[in-house]
Amino acid sequence: MAISETTRQRLETQGFTGLDVARLAEVESWLRFTPAVCAFLMGVGTALASPAFLWALAAVAAMGAIFPAHPFDLVYNFAVRRLTSTHALPPNGAPRRFACGLAAVWLSATGAVFWADAAVVGYAMGGLLTVMASIVALTHFCIPSLIYGALFGRGRRAPTAALNE
After folding, report:
1. CA–CA distance from 119 to each of 88, 110, 127, 131, 134 (Å)?
2. Hey, how many other C-beta atoms are within 10 angstroms of the C-beta on 6?
3. Fewer CB near the terminus (10 Å): N or C of the chain?
4. Which pLDDT tens digit goes with each residue over 9-67?
5. Is the CA virtual torsion 10, 15, 18, 21 positive or negative?
6. Where along the chain do its domains lie?
7. 45, 153, 164: which is closest to 109 by C-alpha?
8. Is the dihedral of CA 84, 21, 92, 128 positive or negative?
9. How far is Cα 46 from Cα 126, in angstroms, rounded to an integer?
10. How many CB atoms lie within 10 A of CB 55?
């Protein structure tokens, strides 16, 4: 398996550095799993204009910001990878956790906007967040990780033990 230089750089921007290239290539497509599930659920919550749904998803995103593995990474690691015969996803580094934190705040705010009956603003906010998560899922290009790098530098990265087991 091979991985393009562009993809490798985008994953490094998210904090996945120092990984064995062969293992990174093996899980590269699966690093799209969590952003894809998040994008889908963000879209559902936005389409339903459901504050409760969006706030629940904000709680999930907050867990992704606090812990080295997002809850949907755990779904992959403990279920999906058994079916795909691939290795576990690496822990999320600070840039990707920062992105989850921003998503948690944004989802909370979007839920509050829908709760306040400002549906047009809610649809705009939820739609934009869904598009941003979809971009990560499709291309590994993560705007919040770029913001993290601009604010804090590129020095704090994800541990690599999970990929090298």
Report:
1. 40, 9, 12, 18, 22
2. 11
3. C
4. 999 999 998 888 888 888 899 999 999 999 999 999 999 999 999 999 999 999 999 99
5. negative
6. 31-152
7. 45
8. negative
9. 5
10. 18
141-162, pLDDT tens digit by residue? 999 999 999 999 864 444 444 4
Rounded to two decimals, what is the model's pTM?
0.90
Q: How far is CA 152 from CA 93, 100, 120, 148, in A?
A: 13, 16, 34, 6
CA distance 153 to 87: 29
Structure tokens at 70: 């997002």
State residue 136 phi and psi, 5-degree precision. -60, -45
Report the alpha-carbon distance of residue 106 to residue 12 in Å, rounded.
24
Three-state secondary structure call for residue 76:
helix
Handedness of CA 68, 101, 60, 43 (dihedral sign): negative
Query: Looking at the chain, how many residues does it have?
Result: 165
Q: Provide the 8-state DSSP code for 31.
A: G
N- to C-terminal Cα distance for the chain? 18
